[in-house]
Amino acid sequence: MARSNVLKPEALKPDAREALAGRGGKTAPMAVPVRKKRKRRVLERYSAIMLAGFILLLWQILVPLSGLSEFILPTPAAIVARIVEDFPLLAMHGYVTLFEVLAGFGLGVLIGVPLALAIFYSPPFQSAVYPLLVALQTVPKVALAPLLVLYLGYGWAPKITLAFLIALFPIVIGTVVGLQSLDRNLVDLTRSMGASEWQTFRKVRLPAALPNIFGGCKVAISLSVIGAVIGEYVAAERGLGYLQLQANAQFDTTLNFASVAAISALGVTLFFILSFIESKVVFRRDTAR
Amino acid sequence: MNVASRIAGARVSISGLVKTYQTRDDVDVLALDNIDLTIERGSFVAVVGPSGCGKSTLLSLVAGLVEASDGRIEIDDQHIVNRPHPKIGVVFQSDLLLYWRTVLDNILLPIEIKHLDVKRHIPKAEELLRQVGLKGFGNKYPSELSGGMRQRVAICRALIQEPGLLLMDEPFGALDALTREQMIMDLQEMWTRLGNTVLFITHGIDEAVFLADRVLVMSPRPGRIALDLTIDMPRPRRWSNAHENPGYQGYVRKIREIFEAQGVLVAH
Fold it and tell me: Would B188 be classed as within a structural domain?
């Protein structure tokens, strides 16, 4: 659980960005002997956990030595204990945030993918909508949160809307880029076989764009978490962001950290679930090598 | 299913074919100018020309991928208007295999698209693979194959529809010299066996003369047929000694002379 402190969604961004570009960045040096290679692979696999463990250990040791009070900086052990103790509370608020994230992200997919298809297939639509979409992206969505509360109230609606707005852009861009990067000759090929546009879409365009679509979705789901939590910061009666604010108001720094851990865990878990689905659905160019 | 059987060649007749392209700044570019051409059933016709002479445009027009500005194209008396004839197979310069499909599924793609019985065509696809020396490669993925092997799969994919007309657009242009040599010989062998009509676009004078019954030499833009050369050499031809054959040398020289006269090749 504590490990998730280190694996924040931000830390995953470069990987997600690479996924958005549709590339799998695996490199295997050729000239390394097998045993050394295996040893290195084990090291690589556990290096993140080991580094996280080291930092937590350092934290655990240094806090009592520095004489900082628990209100300023609790130890990792105290935070873990608090997570265990207050698990039902964290879970209850976690479910609310999870619902907001999934609803916002789901809307992002449901609206983003068809929007991307319209942008791809209709040049007039593209010239009308694409610049607006990019302009909209330059508006910090977080700055819209108070307005959304004003219009949509204190319930889950503004949080879902914020998560959706943040998720939309990477999904649309990923899908459009994926569709546009197709080799034009492939379309000639299927047409020469007598394929309809629908057949070309199903057999070639969509499967070829899937790595980019998933790349966009992976970026989007991490961002959706941020959207939902920001929404909760502004005005909420439930959710992990709300819980964190409550903890803050009561100087309960341990619960504050526990909430952060829960938010991170939520983001990381959703990201990996999406990665798992991707590995089942998308055939990567380099997996067969 | 008998796969080794011959394929009835299609007849192509082209008259007054013109193609103009519009560039981005609205300038009309004449790519093909008044092409008249009849390709007999079962003949192997190669088109050579410098890049940009419109030879690939000619192929796209015959394939029904591009609409002609003027003139007529008929395949087996069927007028082609921006819609591919069902009896064609196209091989492009790059193999265009779908990396997420196995070799077998790639070959069966045209069958799927034409809503034919895919299962019934599996033995045929496997037989085609055997014929191009890729027996047992059906379950591999394209990324596991070399460039030459991939192009062989692309040829199998074109052949599974038993195309009366096989259109090849610089099919060996992306291959290394040795692989290309082997592919040229294999193509001759395969075509002799199948007997379908082939329209073969290339910029390689040597492979055009070696493979074809007839070589059409195209002039640079606007593309016109500058020379229609019948290659009268017995088959099977052998690549290893074709270059020593005086007849072969004569044909190659003639084509080179045309290119030199047009400034495509400059003698020093």
Answer: yes
Distance separating alpha carbons of residues B178 and B223, to the nearest angstrom: 31
Can you tell me the distance from the alpha carbon of A239 to that of B69, in angstroms, rounded to the nearest whole number? Answer: 65
B267 or B6, higher pLDDT: B6
| Burial (CB count within 10 angstroms: exposed 0-12, middle 13-18, buried 19+), residue B177 | exposed
Residue B119 lies in a domain: no
Please state the rounded mean pLDDT for residues B106-111: 96
With beta carbons under 8 A apart, name residues in chain B contacting A195: 113
Residue B4 confidence class, pLDDT cut points 50, 70, 90? low
Sequence-distant (6+) residues with CB within 8 A of B132 are B152, B153, B155, B156, B186, B190
Q: What is the pLDDT along chain A (289 residues), one digit of tens a residue?
A: 334 333 334 444 444 444 444 444 444 445 556 667 777 777 778 888 899 999 999 999 988 888 888 788 899 999 999 999 999 999 999 999 999 999 999 999 999 999 999 999 999 999 999 888 888 888 888 888 899 989 998 888 999 999 999 999 999 999 999 999 999 999 999 999 999 999 999 999 999 999 999 999 999 999 999 999 999 998 888 999 999 999 999 999 999 999 999 999 999 999 999 999 999 888 876 544 3
Check CB contact of A191 with chain B, cutoff 8 Å. yes
* Residues pairing with A127 in the sheet: none
Which chain B residues contact residue A187 at CB under 8 A? none
Q: How many beta-carbon contacts under 8 Å exist across A and B?
A: 60
ipTM of the complex: 0.89
CATH number assigned to the domain comprising residue B48: 3.40.50.300
How far off is chain A from B65, nearest CA to CA, in Å? 7
B114 lies in a domain?
Answer: no
A185 touches chain B (CB under 8 A): yes
Do residues B158 and A190 make contact, with C-beta atoms less than 8 angstroms apart? no
> Is residue A204 within 8 angstroms of chain B, CB to CB?
yes
Q: In angstroms, what separates the C-alpha of A260 from chain B's closest C-alpha?
A: 40
Alpha carbon distance B194, B41 (integer Å):
12
Mark yes or no for CB contact B143/A183 under 8 Å.
no
Q: Domain count of chain B?
A: 1
* Cβ separation B92–A183 shorter than 8 A: no
Using CB atoms, pick whichever of B64, B112, B144 lies closest to residue A288. B144
The topology (CATH level 3) of A74-281 is MetI-like fold (1.10.3720)
In a domain, B20, yes or no: yes
- Closest partner CB to B113 (pick from A190, A208, A289): A190
Q: Do B98 and A193 touch (CB under 8 A)?
A: no
Q: Does A194 touch chain B (CB under 8 A)?
A: yes
Picking from A289, A278, A288, the residue whose alpha carbon sits closest to that of residue A178 is: A278
Using an 8 Å CB-CB cutoff, list chain B residues near A288.
140-141, 143-144
Residue B41 structural domain: 12-87+162-261
Nearest chain B residue to A199 by CA distance is: B113
Mean pLDDT value across chain B: 89
* Domain chopping of chain A, boundaries: 28-67, 74-281
